[in-house]
Amino acid sequence: MGRIHCAHGAGAAKIVASLAVLVLVRFLLGMGESVVYTASNRLVAAWIPSQERGLANGLIFAGVGLGSAVTPPLIAYIIYHRGWRSSFWMCALIGLLVGGLWLLLARDEPQHHPWVSAEELSHISAGLPQATTTAESQALGWRTILGTKNVWILTASYFGFVYVAYIFFTWFFTYLSIVRRLNLKASAAYSVLPFAAMAGASFLGGWISDRLTGKYGKRVGRCFTASACTAMAAVFVGFGTHVGDARVASVVLAGGAGALYLSQSAFWSVSSDIGGRSAGSVSGIMNMGGQLGGATTASLTPFVAKHLGWEMSFWVAAGFCFLSAIAWLMVDPHQQLKSTPARAHQRNDAELKTNSYEEEFLK
């Protein structure tokens, strides 16, 4: 009996240790993932003319949607034929391959890339927002970023956006299989629809945003367009659960995901425009708000579904979506953040002192 208890104790300890390692690895993975969107937005701010950023961000997030659509069947195929451990190895190899290519090909500034011609560099420079003062060309301090109302309105809007998006990332398959009672094969097939819609809508929304921005300005092309698309998504998401046929409901809800992602590029284009050289920091704050929305979805959605039903959980998401649309109307896409002159001079003085100390040390 004592040996049995010892065996059970050892088994439990191994399970706890394995779980701890898994949680640690997942935490480190999250740390790595957190850099991707903000780094890409900083790259867009340095490389892409302002009037072309909608399409550029649309392409980036079309890749996110495409990857989300391809991953479930690909991982399922690998697990079925090679086992679940092989699926982890495949993901690791893909990550290393993409990371290696990025390290080899990407540069922070276009003038540092050997493949950029003088003509292309001139086109990029002409389309970037021009800093008219020293303060506007400086990297911003956190006090300036966190003290700007525009940043918080954009962050609040992105909270609602990601709350709704994570309904599809975390609960859509469960909704189809348990609530709508589709079989495993049908649930897997229809759960891909929102991600396919996201991929196509990201590209289309970026293109539409750029066209309208070029014709009517950023207020219409970025803010009004994003607000209208997000409000349309709220209608799809709210009423989609009331459709009787499960397959038609899946298509309607996927339409909501597509309508939502028509506005995706606007978030990142505006954060890039107002952030300037600190676009990474500004979009990092915005993305933090979004991830808080995703975390809220993970816990609030099942709570509402348990106590008030799944239809109400989707109506809650529609409500957040509608609030996100309203917030867009209060965003000023022309208000580029800048440090106060005093802080800019203080930063320059500090840099000069640092350089003088380095020179003295080298002597």
Outline the structure in words.
The chain has 15 helices and no strands. It has 363 residues and is mainly α. The protein has one domain (2-73, 147-338): MFS general substrate transporter like domains (Growth Hormone, Chain: A, Up-down Bundle), CATH 1.20.1250. Helix 1 packs across helix 12 and helix 13 packs antiparallel against helix 14 (310-328).
Distance between the termini: 75 Å
Number of domains: 1
Globular, elongated, flat, extended or rod-shaped: what is the shape?
A: globular
Can you summarize the main beta sheet?
Answer: none
- The low-confidence parts are 132-136, 342-363
- Helical amount among residues, as a percent range? over 70%
Return the CATH topology: Growth Hormone, Chain: A
CATH class: Mainly Alpha
What structural class results from the helix and strand content? Answer: mainly alpha
| Total DSSP E strands | 0
Mean pLDDT: 81
The ordered string of helix (H) and strand (E) elements is: HHHHHHHHHHHHHHH
Superfamily (CATH H level) name: MFS general substrate transporter like domains
